[in-house]
Amino acid sequence: MFQNENDLDLYIVAFQTEITDVYTLGNQVVVVGHPKRTGVQVITVKTGAINPLNKKEPLLIQLATQSGDEIDYSLISYMPPDFWSKQKKN
């Protein structure tokens, strides 16, 4: 998982999972999918669509099954969508 520093998309790479849904709430992004034996899938989430409750706290990114079982997770720092425009003004 990584953030594109040019347009601030959050790229999520899921191995051996068919992604079916993505949900965001507060500081949490849940990627729902079906486990598979092979394959890779890449999705993007616009950083501006996340709207965390606390921008100083990390984002919890979870990969889960449709029944709610967590497969994997990661904690990343939030970067607001206007990050680069603010940097250029300095």
Outline the structure in words:
The chain is mainly β. Helix content is 8%, strand content 57%. It has one helix spanning 83-89; strands spanning 2-3, 9-25, 28-46, 59-64, 70-76. Strand 1 (2-3) and strand 2 (9-25) form a beta hairpin. The mean pLDDT is 83.
Outline of the structure:
The chain is mostly beta strands and 90 residues long. Helices cover 8% and strands 57% of the residues.
- Roughly what is the average pLDDT, rounded to an integer? 83
Structural class: mainly beta
Walk across the major sheet and give the strand order.
1-2-3-4-5
N-to-C order of helices and strands: EEEEEH
**Strand content range:** over 45%
| Oligomeric grouping of the chains | single chain
- DSSP strand count: 5
Helix coverage percent: under 10%
Globally, the shape reads globular
What is the CA–CA distance across the termini?
29 Å
Largest sheet: 5 strands, mixed
Low-confidence stretches: none
Number of helices: 1
- Rounded to an integer in angstroms, the radius of gyration calculated over CA atoms is 14 Å
Blueprint of the fold:
Layout: E1 2-3, E2 9-25, E3 28-46, E4 59-64, E5 70-76, H1 83-89
Parallel strand pairs: 3-4
Antiparallel strand pairs: 1-2, 2-3, 4-5
